[in-house]
Design a protein that fits this description.
homodimer, mainly alpha, Arc Repressor Mutant, subunit A, 2 domains, 5 helices, 2 strands, globular, DNA-binding
Chain lengths: ~140, ~140
DNA sequence: TACATTGTACTATAAGACTAATACAATAGG
DNA sequence: CCTATTGTATTAGTCTTATAGTACAATGTA
């Protein structure tokens, strides 16, 4: 067989000492890989079993991560076939998008403000973080 | 001038169904009250016991919340006296501040990006959230 | 000192989170 | 159809979290 041996298969790795549960580490790595372009629409994720073997954990743990990703609409999964990055990168209404953003941003702001961070500082930090992500992108000019 | 007794004592309330643990709800409410000016430097928080009675929970749960707040440097606590909003609103070095912000911002960005939110959208959301907070402020050190 | 007020320590327990073992079910392809 | 491959379901074990009960210790003040 000529599998995807020529495509860099994306390196997952787990840090058992981090305190962050395995399934969450997987979710984060997938999210991040999408964000910086290492995963694109339609790409197949490693199979539940292969990734489980690779990471030396139980398949169920991988499955759980994939499941949450599917619930969030980030991946599509089909039994017998595999799990793939969602074609229609999240289908939310504008209202839902706003709400989602608010949900993500609000706790951050609450904490940042009580720590005395000025709005400008937070804005800069956000810009910096995005800069780090966009470095790998090529034809994703306007995410807007 | 208004002594503490007729200053609105800040209304705490808990939502048992939210899934968010009590002690975290208390922490968040204190953080938020600081952020929007309802708590200012030097203010005394309700005593462990009084708040426990008020919320109908165990004093230890309140104590835990106050403890975490103290660890973060947000309040000062003295046995026999009470718990107070920290005078020196967090004493972090610049390096620590940067690291802290990064820690707060990074997960947000990772998620926002994988949901397809553009940087500009996130920036707007941050501005909006800060606007909501600043409404109550008056002569508070300018958040720039 | 005496005492009321404040936070703290220790312990117990119930609930939930996390992972794994194992067996099941759907799909693709010969 | 078979069968290998994929994800799924069920169950259980272990650990951590969250809260409470109860007793202790420090502080301020008369």
């Amino acid at each position: 067989m000529a599998p995807e041996s020529d495509r860099k298969p994306i390196q997952f790795n787990l840090d058992p000492k981090s305190g962050v549960p395995y399934y969450k580490q997987i979710i984060l790595q997938v999210e991040f890989a999408i964000a910086d372009g290492r995963f694109a629409t339609g790409d197949q994720l490693p199979t539940v079993r292969s990734l489980a073997v690779d990471l030396k954990i139980n398949p169920n743990t991988v499955a759980r991560a994939y499941n949450e990703l599917e619930i969030r609409g980030i991946v599509n999964t089909q039994q017998g076939t595999g799990t793939f990055i969602s074609d229609k990168q999240i289908k939310l209404t504008e209202v839902e998008r706003e709400g989602m953003l608010d949900t993500l941003v609000r706790p951050l702001i609450s904490k940042a403000a009580s720590y005395g961070f000025a709005m400008a500082e937070v804005l800069d930090a956000v810009r910096d973080a995005y800069k780090g992500i966009v470095q790998n992108e090529e034809e994703q000019h306007d995410i807007l």
